[in-house]
Amino acid sequence: MLGLVSALYALFGVVFVVAYVPQLRAVWRSRNGAADVSLGTWGLWCASSTVSLLYAHLVSHDASYTLVCLGNVAGCYAVTGTALLRRQRHAVAAAAA
């Protein structure tokens, strides 16, 4: 049973990391500065995933858990950073118009 749970955790870890791609694409293609993306929510997810990564690495010492958390950190920060960039570019374009 433990082997099955471990395999499922690894599988879903990969699935969740890949699931950031459509969100990242949508934010990048946004024409309104990603105004419909909640930076507060994504910021909390960034903080939570960072804490999870630290826990995985420093407390549990579990390589699989750490890799999944690292993927989540990368995805969260990629979406959040891209949303911030799109907002900044949208504001600059609006100010120039």
Explain what the structure shows:
It is a single chain. The protein has helices at residues 2-18, 20-29, 39-60, 63-96. The mean pLDDT is 93. The protein is an all-alpha fold and 97 residues long. The longest helix is centred in the last third of the chain and has 34 residues, at 63-96. It is elongated. It has a domain at 34-97.
What is the fold's blueprint, element by element?
Elements: H1 2-18, H2 20-29, H3 39-60, H4 63-96
The averaged pLDDT comes out at 93
The percent of residues in helical segments reads over 70%
Class per helix and strand makeup: mainly alpha
Helix run count: 4
Q: How large is the radius of gyration? A: 16 Å
Give the CA-based shape: elongated
* Amount of beta strand: under 5%
Distance between the termini: 61 Å
Unreliable spans are: none
Give, in order, the helices and strands. Answer: HHHH
Number of strands: 0
Report the sheet with the most strands, covering strand number, pairing sense and barrel closure: none
Quick summary of this structure?
The chain has helices spanning 2-18, 20-29, 39-60, 63-96.
Keywords:
mainly alpha; 97 residues; single chain
